[in-house]
Structures are given as structure tokens and as C-alpha cells.
Design brief:
The chain is mainly α and about 350 residues long. The protein has 18 helices and no strands. One of its GO terms (molecular function) is hexose transmembrane transporter activity.
Length: about 350
């Protein structure tokens, strides 16, 4: 029974009208926020040659010469890696943005403005002869990525009931895979990956950002942020919206007050490393994250097309492999939920290293 607990929690949640609203809100916001993350991870993969050819022509128009294959490889590596650099920078703005704007507004409005600007700037690089826009746009989408990957778990934690919180957090990985699959499909040459359409391909996530900005006023700020700022009347309205009038409002309000009082004072990076308990936790997180990055998964999603071409894989199948891999990853997430429950996180993590 334990392996199926998370799926049962979600199923029972849909049967409860109050929990159903929270589940649908989390699915809606997670899809619109996280799928662009997976999208921009993969979007440069399949149309790599098409975009490189266009950038090379732009370089010739500006400087009067074409880039060599080696120079183009270096330029392309810088463009791809700008997203990682942007994500690193974005992480430093998580606490200031959530404290000043609130979790909901930071996630659904301000971060999506970054996504829109970044996506449109990359799209514009296909229409005007400025390959430098690719660096700027890619960096901005990286900032969005760093913020989105932190804001969604915070948002889920602050609005969802404890009994379904863990299950709802699993949608994050699923929608990264969905976004990756969407990018891989749209980037096929006969859809949006052609010479005349790759700008639209890179600008597409701006549409998802616009939808979320327009939907943002329909959702109240999270109860936790409102209570921490002493706005109890609006916090009560927020609890009614997310948890429904059928819930015990006094008990829920008390739980949120207790939750807010337990939030520790934010430490600086220097203070965190000075604390022995926090230091080892940070080091462990860094090692696990580095393991995930350097296992080759990030390089694969960005360079799988050229990798398969270099080993003379079946040419006609190469453009479809990123989409297949993303869909397979999303499917494998479901049994992974069961394994987490049966094996435990520590044992499962160590066995996969």
C-alpha cells in the first residue's frame, strides 16, 4: 500500500472539491512555469545546424567573413552555456523577490516578464542581423530557469495541504519532460525548426509566460506571505480560496501561523558555511547536484543531435530522438514515485550514482 500512497493521495484529492481546486491550480501553474524550463533546455538541439548557418551568415554580414567550424563550435558552446550562467544568477534573487513581491506575484508575473523578454529577444535574432541577441536572450531565460525551479516548490508548499504536498511536488519533473518533448517536436524541420521559422520556435515560450501573467490576478497571494506581512484579513480570504470554505478555517489559519513562526531567519552564504550542520547539508546538496550535471544528462539534451550524427546513427531518426527521450523520462517518473516510497530517498540516490 505504501508504494501507491502518493497516487492515492492525488486520486482522493480529486474527489474532494476543496483539494481539487488546489490540485488543478498546481498543475496549471506548474505546467506554465516549468515547461518553459524544459523547453529552453532542448530547443537548440534539433535545429542546431539551421541556427548555426543563420548565425554564420549574420556574422558574415557584420564582419565580412564566415566563422570556421571550430570557431562556430566555440560560439555555440557559449550560447548554450549562457542558460546555466543565467540560472546561477537567478538563484541569488529568489529570497529578495519572494520577500518583496510575494511568492505568487514573483512566480506568475515578474519571472514571466523575464521569460517573455528572453524568448522574444532570441526570436528577434532570427529577424535582425544581431547574433549577440542570442547571448542576451539565452542568459535571461537562464535567469528565469533559476527562479522558476525554486519558486514552484515554494508556491506548492505554501498553498497545498500537507497530505498531498509531496505528490504535487512531483509534477515539477514531469512538466520539465513535457516542455522538453514539446520543444523537440516543434523544432522538427517541417514544423518550426526550418530556416524561416526558427525564430518563432525560440519565441514560443513567451506565449506561455503571457498566459500566466494574464491569469495571475485571478489567484490571491499565498496565505504564508500575507500572514508574514500582517495582512490577516487577506490571508483568511486566501485560505478560503485555496482550501475552500469546507475546511476548518480557524485550524488552517492556526497551522499557517505556526508554519510562519517556524521559518528561521535567512542566513547569508558565509554564515551558512560557518554553521557545521548547515555546511554539511550544503556540501551534500552541491555534490548531488554536481553528480546530476556531470553525469552527462545536460550535455545530452543540448548536443544529442550532433552526438548521434558523429557516430553515424540512422539520419532520419536523429531529429525524433530528443522527443522520444523526453517522453520516456516523463513515463519513468511514475515508477520512480513508487521506488522513492519503497526504497527510500537515500538508498535510491546512492544506488543510482
Amino acid at each position: 500500500m505504501a508504494p501507491a500512497r502518493k497516487m492515492i493521495d492525488i486520486t482522493n484529492g480529486f474527489l474532494d472539491p476543496d483539494k481539487r481546486r488546489v490540485i488543478l491550480i498546481v498543475i496549471f501553474t506548474s505546467f506554465l512555469t516549468i515547461s518553459p524550463v524544459g523547453y529552453h533546455l532542448v530547443v537548440l538541439n534539433v535545429p542546431e545546424k539551421v541556427i548555426q548557418s543563420s548565425l554564420n551568415q549574420t556574422f558574415f554580414n557584420e564582419y565580412g567573413r564566415y566563422l570556421s567550424a571550430a570557431d562556430m563550435s566555440v560560439l555555440w558552446a557559449f550560447i548554450v552555456s549562457c542558460q546555466g550562467l543565467g540560472a546561477l544568477i537567478g538563484c541569488f534573487f529568489i529570497v529578495p523577490m519572494t520577500s518583496y513581491f510575494g511568492t505568487k506575484w514573483a512566480m506568475m508575473t515578474w519571472n514571466n516578464l523575464i521569460l517573455i523578454f528572453g524568448s522574444l529577444i532570441m526570436g528577434l535574432s532570427a529577424k535582425i542581423d544581431m547574433f549577440e541577441l542570442m547571448f542576451i536572450g539565452r542568459f535571461l531565460t537562464g535567469v528565469y530557469t533559476g527562479l522558476a525551479c525554486a519558486l514552484v516548490p515554494i508556491f506548492v508548499y505554501e498553498i497545498s495541504p500537507k497530505e498531498i504536498r509531496g505528490a504535487l511536488s512531483c509534477f515539477m519533473h514531469i512538466f520539465v519532460c513535457v516542455g522538453s518533448a514539446l520543444a523537440a517536436i516543434l523544432s522538427l524541420n517541417f514544423i518550426l525548426g526550418g530556416e524561416d521559422t526558427w525564430g518563432l520556435l525560440l519565441a514560443f515560450p513567451a506565449l506561455l509566460g503571457l498566459i500566466q501573467i494574464l491569469a495571475s490576478p485571478m489567484l490571491p497571494e499565498t496565505p504564508s506571505h500575507l500572514l508574514m506581512n500582517g495582512v490577516e484579513d487577506k490571508a483568511l480570504q486566501s485560505i478560503k480560496f485555496y482550501h475552500g470554505s469546507g475546511s476548518n478555517l480557524i485550524e488552517t489559519m492556526s497551522r499557517y501561523n505556526e508554519q510562519c513562526s517556524e521559518i528561521p531567519q535567512q542566513w547569508s552564504i558565509t554564515d551558512s558555511f560557518k554553521n557545521p550542520k548547515a555546511r554539511w547539508g550544503i556540501i551534500l546538496g552541491m555534490v548531488v547536484s554536481a553528480t546530476q550535471i556531470f553525469c552527462g544528462s545536460m550535455a545530452t539534451v543540448s548536443y544529442s543531435t550532433s552526438m548521434f550524427e558523429s557516430v553515424s546513427f540512422i539520419t532520419v531518426l536523429i531529429p525524433y530522438l530528443p522527443a522520444f527521450g523526453s517522453i520516456l523520462s516523463a513515463i519513468l517518473t511514475l515508477p520512480a514515485l513508487y521506488l522513492v516510497e519503497t526504497m527510500g530517498r537515500r538508498k535510491l540516490l546512492l544506488s543510482t550514482l
